Each structure stands twice: as C-alpha cells, then as structure tokens.
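Predict the 3D structure for this chain.
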Amino acid sequence: MNASSRSNFLLLGAGGLMTRAVSQRLLELGARPRAVIQSGAAPAALASLPGLELEIPRKDWCQEMRAQGIESRYEFDVGELSAWLRRRRADYLLVACWPRRLPDPVLDSVRIDAINLHPSLLPDYSGFDPVGDMLRDGHRDFGVTLHRMTRHIDAGPVLKQERLDLPADATREAIETAAARRGAELFVEILRQSPALAIRR
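Done. Predicted structure below.
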C-alpha cells in the first residue's frame, strides 16, 4: 500500500547524508512529509559570517525539499518552532539526525508521536555519533532503532528495531545510508498502522 494517504508527518534533520537518505527513501515509498526543518542557518547566512571559510553547497537539503514542493524551513527559536509545528497539525514528528535534544514543547507539538530514527541497536550506542563510536570500538553489530522521543536522549520506548546485514568492513557512509533507508521503511510501517498503536508518552 502506498503511504501517501497516511503521510501526515513532519521531518526534522541536520541535512547531511542520513537526513537525505531518509527523505529520499520516504519519497520513494510515497511518504511525503508535510514540511521539513533543517538544523542551523541557511547557507547564505553562513557564507556571510566574517572569518568563516566554508564550501557552501549549491543547494542544501532544505532547498532540495522546497524544489519538490515541500514546505521547508531552517531552524528557529524553540517557542516559535513549537507554535509553527502545531499549526501544521501533523500526527507525527520524525527526527533524522538532529544535533541537540529537542525540548518538550517541540515534542508535544504533534498529535500522536515524536519519533527518532537512530542508527544503532539501542540501548547500545546512544548519543549523537553512534556510528563513529561503533567504528572506533571495532563494534560490528549494526542496526537501526525507531523510538518515542522523551526529555532523555535516546531513552524512549522502542517502536521498531532491526539489525542490518552489512559486511564487517562497512564504511560510515554505507552504515548510515543503510540505517537511514531501512529506518525510513520502518517508519512507513508505523504510518500504515492504526494510530492507536502509537499512544502518546
């Protein structure tokens, strides 16, 4: 079943490899977010900062989504962000690689659940760089977890979790891409289920 009839969700991400892979797979599956928010400032704003030398991409993730007709914003004040999210009246918030903890007003801005897509088998390797930590430790048990977000980072109830069949010498890019794509598929499974299965915190 195509997921478009249940695609009442908002997508937040840092705009890097994982975020792009998640959004690409969601769109392939017909799950189109109502809106996306990218962390940080617009590339033009970064380029104008004095003394900062950056290779600014021609088109970042937020701009790519906007080109596809998806409402897109860069990160802004928490109070304004939560109000903006509430006005979209979305059922779900899907977070794919956000660089800091989201406060309760943001998590409570959707009607059913705020869900984080995390590239490890939680509770193992929680935190902001799980793939890097696994590679540094020589850990090769790769996976992806979708969990309900709470005020504690990566500690909410697990909704979906799956191991990834990857070679022992898999690169960071390969691991993050596989986790992102499979995580997007697991999220679509949630969209296809009854909202009653995703009871609020």
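Confidence is low (pLDDT under 50) at residues 44-58, 196-201.
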